[in-house]
Design a protein that fits this description.
- The longest helix is centred in the first third of the chain and has 36 residues.
- This protein has a single domain, classed as Nuclear Transport Factor 2, Chain: A.
- It has 3 helices and 6 strands, in the order H-H-E-E-H-E-E-E-E.
- The N and C termini lie far apart (about 60 Å).
- A hairpin with a 2-residue loop joins strand 3 and strand 4.
- The protein has about 130 residues and is α+β, with helices and mostly antiparallel strands.
């Protein structure tokens, strides 16, 4: 009986640790989404690593660093009064979060259908790959 308990405990603790990683990943993705919709630049940047790397899918490098991200988003948060991202679906696989999104920049124009693939290491988002309709 003791031989069965040890493997069962190992599986339980392995699953519990994996669930926590998934939970942290999802929490970070949601935190930045909420701040995005509130146009809160500091809250938006908080979940990202200082050296975050941004790509256009599959691997076209766009820019790196939280300060560059601030430049990219701060003005948009001020200008786009209709800015809102609606989460259509979310999938979490290990340290990856894949969000399907509908993004409105201007309520008089159609929403952008996009996906964001976040990679989380530790307690920070270290990279994002964006996929969008052309």
């Amino acid at each position: 009986m003791k031989k069965l308990i040890c493997p069962a405990l190992f599986l339980f603790f392995s699953f519990a640790a994996r669930s926590q990683t998934i939970s942290t990943a999802e929490k970070l993705a949601q935190e930045q989404l909420d701040a995005y919709n509130n146009r809160d630049i500091e809250g938006f940047l908080k979940p990202y690593s200082d050296s975050v790397r941004i790509y256009y899918f599959p691997n076209q490098f766009a820019y790196q660093g939280k300060e560059e991200m601030r430049k990219q988003y701060a003005d948009m948060f001020k200008r786009a009064t209709d800015l809102h991202c609606t989460l259509k679906s979310r999938m979490v696989i290990g340290n990856k979060v894949i969000d399907e999104e509908s993004v409105v920049f201007d309520k008089n124009r159609p929403a952008l259908h996009a996906a964001a693939i976040y990679t989380i290491v530790g307690d920070k988002i270290v990279s994002v790959h964006f996929v969008a309709e052309k």
